[in-house]
Amino acid sequence: MANARPSPRPSRGATINRESARFNLPQTEADGDWLDARDEIDGAPPPLRTSVTVERPKTIISRNVSPDLPFDRSINPYRGCEHGCIYCFARPTHAFHDLSPGLDFETKLFAKPDAAALLRAELSKPSYTCGPIAMGTNTDPYQPIEREWRVTRGVIEVLAECDHPLVITTKSDRVVRDIDLLGPMAAKGLVAVAISVTSLDSRIAMTIEPRAPHPERRLTAVRRLSDAGIPIYVNMAPVIPAITDHEVEAIVARAAEAGALGVSFIPVRLPWEVAPLFRAWLDEHFPDRAGKVMATIQSLRGGERDNDPGFFTRMRGQGPWGELLRARFLIARKRSGIDRNREKMRLRTDLFRPPRGDQGELF
After folding, report:
1. pTM metric for this prediction
2. Cβ-Cβ contacts under 8 Å for 225 (sequence gap 6 or more)
3. Can you tell me the mean pLDDT for 80-106?
4. Lowest-pLDDT choice from 17-26, 195-204, 256-265, 295-304
5. How many Å apart are CA 167 and CA 141, to the nearest integer?
6. Nearest to 222, CA basis, from 252, 242, 249, 189
7. Which of 66, 160, 302, 346 shows a CA-CA span of 20 to 30 A to 295?
């Protein structure tokens, strides 16, 4: 049953569990008298536990033809993400499972344990043409359940075996666990990693990304990857007006100190069901500036919209706020001297060889 008003849960991002309105899913609303009685008699709701369901897809490589993305294929080891980032643009994908993009997205997860085997089969096809595979474009490949499921590591093992190029985006320092695989790949020009740092303030980070690692742990991971010779970048994704935008210069400086080769940023995006979830979250956590935040976001998105889905503009932002943010970012990057070695993002594809079959070593 959907809650008609926010019921914040400890260590969770969304304040509500609103159903999708796009796929003819039933819309329900809790009775107000019942809510009052629940709060008075039962107290706060119990903590939500994370559940993981096994998913058995037939293929593992997803394709896209978006002209503003630097890759045309990706792998998502998981659906849903326990990090609970309130702004996550992947939240609406949970509606395809008749689940809410709200709390369901961060508590009812799906794992794909057959990912490595499926990848091996796809890479073995004579028709396969090599191109960099992106991981972390939808949900985080190093979210907490990777510790036990190790689906991401299995995928990287196959790619390393085949000398296949890979780009990883994550908010987790757990990526350093796989330095033993990523280091040799980097030496061949086959891998680059981007770590997202949205705030250096632990209180803000805990609110917008409740189960993601502390920002300092992410910056430590940047240093460790850099020291291992792995091309590492920092993404400020997203920048939230009036909440994190004042940290642009500090994050760029810290990224440079940690050894990042480059820094990028994306203004917050609020597609489909993300917008009402974000608005409810603002009302709960930042009621003093909710109006200002949304007014600035709408300015960035063309005036009266919460989101701009247009190619090229969706990642940049428009108007005076967009120009101001870009100017600040460029000045900060120049001061830090971080705008260098972008060529290391160009990964090699000429080393690829199909994976060995079960009989491969006999011939």
Report:
1. 0.88
2. 175, 176, 179, 182, 193, 195, 232, 259
3. 93
4. 17-26
5. 11
6. 252
7. 66
**CA dihedral sign of residues 140, 252, 205, 271:** negative
Judge residue 184's burial from the number of C-beta atoms within 10 Å of its C-beta, 0-12 exposed, 13-18 middle, 19 or more buried: middle
Distance between CA atoms of residues 213 and 199, nearest Å: 12
Phi-psi label, residue 267: left if phi above 0, alpha if psi -120 to 50, beta otherwise: beta
How far apart, in whole angstroms, are the C-alpha atoms of residue 286 and residue 100? Answer: 23
Are 95 and 273 in contact by the 8 Å Cβ rule? The answer is yes
pLDDT range class, residue 3, cuts 50, 70, 90: very low
More confident residue, 198 or 49: 198
Peptide bond into 57 cis (omega under 30): no
Domain residue spans in the chain? 32-354
Identity (one letter) of the amino acid at 230?
I
Quickly state the pLDDT bin for 12 (edges 50, 70, 90).
confident
- Does domain 32-354 bear CATH number 3.20.20.70? yes
